[in-house]
């Protein structure tokens, strides 16, 4: 319509969203405080010792994760020859006592290469929070201590850690090793051998390599 009444009707809705906007901002603040992952806390009745479980080479991670449940598991991908994994070990060993209602697993990424590829583990140590069998969050801090790990779990799940838990001498001993073991980096060795073989091939078969360079084929034909 037209006229003063219609113009006034069109102008009124402009003022109405002001109060709801403040309410939306408050709701957004409340949702930010809510846990991102709603974990089903396991029953700890009858469990006397809360410890980390390390998977061996024949065990599959997916056998330990129940896709039909909402319980949460923190999984560590590590290698025994990585110094960052070794420095993280005592802190990760103490986490089961700090969060007894959660489960904690660790596996050697060099022995489970298919899982490392599946979950995008390009470097170790790598920590993933699973709900059931689905990865929900990744720990991305470079400061890997008990306190930063507790903050990560609390921010994701809303579950508070026990305040009386600290890193002990037993945590330095195991179950996750905190001492580096000597091993061979087979990927690095393969890369070095491949590079050396290519350089040797380029040196011996120079004429063949020239065919790979644009513009050199005509000069070779002449």
UniProtKB/TrEMBL annotation:
<feature type="region of interest" description="Disordered">
    <location>
        <begin position="1"/>
        <end position="33"/>
    </location>
</feature>
<dbReference type="GO" id="GO:0005929">
    <property type="term" value="C:cilium"/>
</dbReference>
<dbReference type="InterPro" id="IPR013766">
    <property type="entry name" value="Thioredoxin_domain"/>
</dbReference>
<keyword id="KW-1133">Transmembrane helix</keyword>
<dbReference type="GO" id="GO:0060271">
    <property type="term" value="P:cilium assembly"/>
</dbReference>
<feature type="transmembrane region" description="Helical">
    <location>
        <begin position="186"/>
        <end position="204"/>
    </location>
</feature>
<dbReference type="InterPro" id="IPR042418">
    <property type="entry name" value="TXNDC15"/>
</dbReference>
<protein>
    <submittedName>
        <fullName>TXD15 protein</fullName>
    </submittedName>
</protein>
<dbReference type="Pfam" id="PF00085">
    <property type="entry name" value="Thioredoxin"/>
</dbReference>
<keyword id="KW-0472">Membrane</keyword>
<feature type="domain" description="Thioredoxin">
    <location>
        <begin position="12"/>
        <end position="158"/>
    </location>
</feature>
<keyword id="KW-0812">Transmembrane</keyword>
<dbReference type="InterPro" id="IPR036249">
    <property type="entry name" value="Thioredoxin-like_sf"/>
</dbReference>
């Amino acid at each position: 319509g037209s006229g003063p009444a219609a113009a006034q009707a069109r102008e009124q809705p402009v003022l109405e969203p002001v109060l709801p906007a403040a309410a939306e901002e408050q709701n957004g603040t409340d949702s930010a405080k809510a846990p991102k992952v709603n974990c089903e806390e396991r029953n700890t009745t009858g469990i006397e010792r809360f410890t980390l479980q390390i998977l061996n080479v024949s065990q599959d991670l997916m056998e330990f994760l129940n896709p039909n449940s909402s319980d949460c598991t923190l999984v560590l991908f590590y290698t025994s020859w990585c110094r960052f994994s070794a420095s993280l070990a005592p802190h990760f060993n103490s986490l089961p006592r700090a969060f007894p209602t959660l489960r904690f697993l660790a596996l050697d990424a060099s022995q489970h290469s298919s899982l490392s590829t599946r979950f995008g583990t390009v470097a170790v140590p790598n920590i993933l929070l699973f709900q059931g069998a689905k990865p929900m969050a990744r720990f991305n801090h470079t400061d890997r201590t008990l306190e930063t790990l507790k903050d990560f779990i609390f921010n994701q799940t809303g579950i508070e850690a026990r305040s009386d838990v600290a890193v002990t001498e037993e945590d330095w001993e195991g179950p996750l090793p905190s001492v580096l073991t000597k091993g061979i980096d087979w990927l690095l060795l393969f890369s070095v051998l491949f590079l050396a073989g290519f350089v040797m091939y380029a040196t011996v078969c120079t004429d063949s390599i020239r065919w790979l360079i644009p513009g050199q084929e005509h000069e070779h034909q002449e």
